[in-house]
Amino acid sequence: MLIYFILLVIYIIILLLVSLGFILIETHKNVNDDIENNYRPRTLVMIPCRGVDYSLEENLKSIINQDYPDYHAVTIVDSPDDPACSIINKLKIDCIVSDFQCGKCSGKVRALCTAIEKYPDYEVYVIADSDILVSSQWLKYLIMPLGIDNAGISTTFPYFKPVGGFWSRVKEVWGFVGMGLMEAKLTRFGWGGSLAFKKSLLNNYFDYFCSNISDDTALTKIAKDKNLDLYYVKRAMPVVNSPENFEQFFEWANRQTALSIAASKKIFYYGILFYFSYMFLFFSAIFAGIFYNKLFLLFLIPEILYILNMIRRLNKVSPENVIAAILMPFIYTVNLFMANRMKNITWRGRVYNIKNKKLL
Prior knowledge:
Structural class: alpha/beta
Order of helices and strands: HEHEHEHEHEEHEHHEEHHHHEEE
Helix content: 40-55%
Strand content: 15-25%
Number of strands: 12
CATH architecture of the domain at 43-243: Alpha-Beta Complex
CATH superfamily of the domain at 43-243: Spore Coat Polysaccharide Biosynthesis Protein SpsA, Chain A
Radius of gyration: 22 Å
CATH topology of the domain at 43-243: Spore Coat Polysaccharide Biosynthesis Protein SpsA, Chain A
């Protein structure tokens, strides 16, 4: 009986420590870094395009109609025959063909390096994915933090708006983890769908940047190497219309996770520790609460806080969102294991070897 009692006490102490850790994570966040100043530098907005994204015409219209005094938008395509060109030409947006010479870079990085090389006289460069839909204030909000001396990157994170079935709802909730990571300075990263940086960031690092598969992980590493700050601007948040089905969602989620793990293996180990702890706490609360003592149900508080934070970000709640939130630790764990085994990813119709970081 004594051994049983000691084991029970140890078990409860572990549950308490894990629970308190998750409560601290859910309740202590730096929501954003909205900055107000008069910093309005000459800016180039670079929009790599490959194929026709969902709502592409609406997306491009939003990017080129900004309340900002001195900016130029340029699209970059692999070929003048790209299907996106008909919409680009219709909107009369400048377009260049990607021709930067790099052996290991992705098509997106090649496009960005092409634009930077052909438009060298800008103080600030902005990356805008072709699948984002933005407000007219997006560019101004995104750039203002760069007026601070120690700023390296100004970035945001999207709201994945579901325009499909259940799995587009899952992607909506999946994206909230990215928002949560952005809200804490310790886990913040540059998101390449909407990211601004000064040209000086690439001083002595241009060749390094142009040899990478992932633009955002490279820029994040450069900023950290230079001891510069990463700013998260929530009010610059774009919308990404997401029509994914089950197969499309998992292909996307595994690819995003694989790119993160390729940038740092620690992400896999931290992720496994985090989500296994979360599931341990969740199942302990359910089973011990039902079969031993209802007080164990109090260990569901972190899950409740997570759902409440999701509702805060959504400003609404639906049964699909709650189900997706409950499933999310299991989905992320599957993503981590599958992504960790991946040697290649398919991105915009191309296959990349993420172990050797080259195009196949």
